[in-house]
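--- STAGE predict ---
source: upstream dedup step, 1 unique chain passed
mode: sequence only
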Amino acid sequence: MAKAGVIGAGSWGTALAHVLDTNGHEVTVWSVLESEVAMLQEKREQTEKLPGVKLSEAIGFTTDLETAVRGMDLLVLAVPSVYTRATAKKMAPFVEPGQKIVNVAKGIEESTLKTLVEIIEEEVPQAETAVLSGPSHAEEVGRGLPTTCVVGAHSRGCAEYIQNLFMNEVFRVYTSPDILGIELGGALKNVIALAAGMADGLGYGDNTKAALITRGITEIGRLALSMGAKYETLSGLTGIGDLIVTCASVHSRNRRAGMLIGQGRTMQQAMDEVRMVVEGVYSAKAAIGLAEKYQVPMPIIEQVNQVLFQDKPVREAVQELMLRDRKAEHEEMLWNQE
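--- STAGE serialize ---
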């Protein structure tokens, strides 16, 4: 049995706490909100963000960060990406050398263009860092529906340790050394999912969705490979797998926000209606920053940014994508005859 501290009591943090508890580990969940901790203690359920998933009496809840961090075998950092740096900074005094932190949020910091693991390593340099990601909506993980994820770490030993803590008959975990590829796939697919939702909001069909998914993974892969990630990662669970589920699922907050925008809401109105953090909005500007830095064309993500931040009509953005210059699907492929 291991001791795990889950930092963040949203839907994903709660679902992973449930998995770890089910596997027989000692789990403590931290939230900055006293009202949230009181609700979890009383109801044994995250009634606002993960209704219907009952939590065992063995799980502890606290607003004291030191209690949730000090002496834990594993720390699961599950706060929204915009709070990752501030939370990691607060955790740092209580983290011992070599203590393992696995990031489970998805995003890129807009001001620095750093991934979340890079941020954690800056703020908590004494920790051993990892990332857990994949096509894994909290609503389904909490209900025990079969799910697969990937844990990425710098060392095989760290990845396999985390794999063993989480894995069971309905939650399968693979390992990978490609932390960068896992994080980029997880962050950038949220921006493409906004586009997919916008298309749904406009009433477009399966053809449009398929085009956005396939051309979207092309954009993500083009950037990720330029930054040093591995092709295999982008073609796997944390690349195309996560992209498919986020673009198509009724559980996807990014798709839902995009759908509301496609129906005529502003970005802020859509975010208010979803009532949870829409990570793709925060990653969209960072994605454009990375595209410019590495000189990589990302036309879908560029149009999403214009819709979100420049009030461009969604239908006009789709039209511009359709009327771009004629291209070959794969420029590197050679013809037998010209």
